[in-house]
Amino acid sequence: MASSEYVFATAALREGRLMRAFTTFIGWACLGLFVLGVVSQLHPLGPHGVVARIVQGAVTVSALIVSALWLRSPWPTYGRAVGFVVWADCSVVIAAATTSTVEARLSTTLYLGLVGIFAAFILGWRITLMHCGFGFATIAAITAWAVMVDGHSVFGLYVYYAPALAWVVVVPLGGMVLIDIGRRAIRRTARSAHFDPLTGLRNRRGMHSAVNLLIKRAEAPVTVAVAVCDMDGFKLLNDTAGHSVGDAALNAMAQRLRSVADPDDVCARIGGDELVLVSILSVRADIADFIQRLTPLTRVDFDGLALAASVGVAADTTATPHFSIDDLIGHADAAMYSVKRSGGASCAIYDPTTASTTGATAGRRRHPSRPV
């Protein structure tokens, strides 16, 4: 299962149209690792011996393959992104192990810092901590081997392992803290900009953003159904019982709206006591099932009061020229006001062929009591 950090980062890159730029950057970075491997084969501090050259050569070739995947493939899944971190960590460690001096080994581990930044930005705390732990263990092992086997002094190697630890461990962890703080701040700002503080439903801006994303993900033309729900007698309730009771009643209606919504539906409050439900239908015939789901909205029991609501419905396909969700809401709104004029506590569907509404009065028949 993808982490929340991966979902957030992926959504941010997609929203900013930066996914291709990001994958291109990673692809070229892997290509740089390939070039480094080629140069290392020819460098005096590079691998010595047939086995070391073969192992390091295999890592170099794999870097070229991974580079091509980043440059030509779509955005990776969470599992593939984690797999990339595992490959990069192992490749850098193998490249470091095959060099001929401890100084070269510790210097090579610096490339783990780039992997750590990728993990911090894309994959979140858990993977970043595991990566940093792996990097720390690698640097400590190289240093300990040099001290105990090759006779180097801990102080003499300080100028190599200290920068390596700072870049491989401290920088990714510090970056993770800053990224997490920024991510939380952005989420709070985004929520306040896209959600209604009273009901927790999306506001108009949040509704448009969510619906446009659903339509974009569908890729092919789909039928969009919109229901506009407006409480009957809400002003009278506010005037007689007070705004706190009115707010509580509105929250009760919002909760009922959530209860009739499917997981992919969009619930919103677009003003006053006007609530909206937007659903993507697989076929136009599903509109009957959509209306059936809306029936519980026409009557909600709240704190001893029988709250009534008028509901208007409109549907259209995104293949329609100049399709607009605002036009669809306007049609549903007209159908809702038609219900109000006929007494409320019912549901009606907008008829685009006659520019009028056809009522579904079953809700009123089931609940003959007068609306609030």
TrEMBL record:
<feature type="domain" description="GGDEF">
    <location>
        <begin position="222"/>
        <end position="352"/>
    </location>
</feature>
<feature type="transmembrane region" description="Helical">
    <location>
        <begin position="51"/>
        <end position="71"/>
    </location>
</feature>
<dbReference type="InterPro" id="IPR029787">
    <property type="entry name" value="Nucleotide_cyclase"/>
</dbReference>
<feature type="transmembrane region" description="Helical">
    <location>
        <begin position="78"/>
        <end position="97"/>
    </location>
</feature>
<protein>
    <submittedName>
        <fullName>GGDEF domain-containing protein</fullName>
    </submittedName>
</protein>
<feature type="transmembrane region" description="Helical">
    <location>
        <begin position="132"/>
        <end position="148"/>
    </location>
</feature>
<dbReference type="InterPro" id="IPR000160">
    <property type="entry name" value="GGDEF_dom"/>
</dbReference>
<dbReference type="Pfam" id="PF00990">
    <property type="entry name" value="GGDEF"/>
</dbReference>
<feature type="transmembrane region" description="Helical">
    <location>
        <begin position="21"/>
        <end position="39"/>
    </location>
</feature>
<dbReference type="InterPro" id="IPR043128">
    <property type="entry name" value="Rev_trsase/Diguanyl_cyclase"/>
</dbReference>
<dbReference type="InterPro" id="IPR052155">
    <property type="entry name" value="Biofilm_reg_signaling"/>
</dbReference>
<keyword id="KW-0812">Transmembrane</keyword>
<feature type="transmembrane region" description="Helical">
    <location>
        <begin position="160"/>
        <end position="181"/>
    </location>
</feature>
<keyword id="KW-0472">Membrane</keyword>
<keyword id="KW-1133">Transmembrane helix</keyword>
<feature type="transmembrane region" description="Helical">
    <location>
        <begin position="109"/>
        <end position="125"/>
    </location>
</feature>
